[in-house]
From TrEMBL:
<dbReference type="InterPro" id="IPR050563">
    <property type="entry name" value="4-hydroxybenzoyl-CoA_TE"/>
</dbReference>
<dbReference type="Pfam" id="PF13279">
    <property type="entry name" value="4HBT_2"/>
</dbReference>
<protein>
    <recommendedName>
        <fullName>Acyl-CoA thioesterase</fullName>
    </recommendedName>
</protein>
<dbReference type="InterPro" id="IPR029069">
    <property type="entry name" value="HotDog_dom_sf"/>
</dbReference>
Amino acid sequence: MTGVRHVYECPVRWADLDMLNHVNNVTYVDYLQEARVDMLRTHAPDARADDLAGGPTEGLVVVSHDITYLAPIAPRSVPIKIEVWVTEVRAASVTMAYEIFDEVDGGERVVYARAHTVLTPFVFADERPRRFTPAEKDALRVFLEPREAERPERTEPRHLADGHYPLHVRFSDVDVYGHVNNVKYFEYFQEARIPVVERITAGQDNSGVGVVVARKEVDYLKPIHFRGEPYDVWSWVSRVGSRSVTVESEICDGDTVLSRAKVVMVFFDAKTQRSAAPPEPLMARLREFAARTA
């Protein structure tokens, strides 16, 4: 039996756009959060379950995000639609699925991204997860469309000197619970990845070919808090394809891993708006970095 799907109409702001005049890949996860919270607030069965949408003492915290980017979102004056449903309900976690889309003439759907998020109910005062109540499970199962979960593959971490980035947390990154909001992690990995890739490819001619993010997976292991000293972000190239490169990263506090990410980027020609093959010397430099070990 197919469950109900919640549809949220999300405004697109000018500040969401990047230098390619598309919605930045980081902003998509903000849209997912908006849609998810709207679903929970609309359909929570009682006051306690309403805490899941972001109450003062309890809420759902993100365990992992997996986003596949299918088409760019251009500037627009009308909201974009986001469909949300549930693919798995377990004792202490729920997996939600999303589709960001437009409906054009004739009811045809243009899909910009698909995503999955694993969340767990969390008691902030005790800094611990908890199990769902029967009422919460019943409310979530209304949206259930079972799907087998895909487990992301990760390579062994490589802490290379030129793959290091010192991450400073801003006070505005912290949410009402004293943790860095899950959306900000996407910004952190982007912030760390760009200078690392620039160092790797310094002096190489890219012939006008840039990159766009095709897929991003983020695992949340431990909370990040505001503090004066920076955290360490380590990034390495784990795969180089003919028109793509995969960069993996982790945010660390000393020997403790706080979050991991895997990003697949496709080389892109802004003039043709299509994938493009970059110059071979640039690809050779990326393959050289991918072969290095710590």
